[in-house]
């Protein structure tokens, strides 16, 4: 399997504060990694570091062999990182359609599946098609999350970073989002890192899993093997899930 992402001895944080310590991880092309851990263990900091939004103190991140360290967030987007931050960060004063067209990028050369366009996002989320002309301020939390995901997709990324996509949403919307994420990763083969505190839903749609504790990786393995060890899950994440 071709390696897409390689993280080596990464330390990072905010200003002088170091949150992540000596993190090493890798992700193969077309695979999905579930990034798990209790509150405050550094999951968001790791995602933000991959996206270029924290201070990297040591180590290196390679995406498709390209070193990301010196690249700013927008340059990482151009290099293939599709980031859906926890805060969603859609443009609230623009319409749904404008949010998508404002960031759309052409697909990379050599890509096997069809490029992501606003129309393909509307196919994935028919709700957004109905709200095409609505402003960001007029969307529900679930619709905002769908739009945030759609915005990352129209960048035509090679790696999707999804930070707690289901947080605070109604179960029916969570199901819709998980179905869409499964389609994007499983059927379209887009590589992804999915952050969650509640592992069952995303372990089922992930190939591998990593668990963070106090800014370090304390478990790495296949998603299936973690799912099959409820006692270990309980020990690592606190509650039997
Ligand atoms: N902007 C910031 N400045 C300084 N420290 C921060 C900042 N954001 C987070 N931290 C600290 O970094 C540590 C890891 O936080 P982080 O948000 O990465 O954890 P998390 O695993 O994503 O948690 P949660 O599941 O609650 O989102 C925490 O101790 C937190 O207080």
UniProtKB/TrEMBL annotation:
Gene3D superfamilies: P-loop containing nucleotide triphosphate hydrolases. The keyword Cell membrane applies. The keyword Nucleotidyltransferase does not apply. GO terms for biological process: L-amino acid transport. It comes from the Bacteria. PANTHER family: ABC TRANSPORTER ATP-BINDING PROTEIN, HIGH-AFFINITY BRANCHED-CHAIN AMINO ACID TRANSPORT ATP-BINDING PROTEIN LIVF. Belongs to the ABC transporter superfamily. This is High-affinity branched-chain amino acid transport ATP-binding protein LivF.
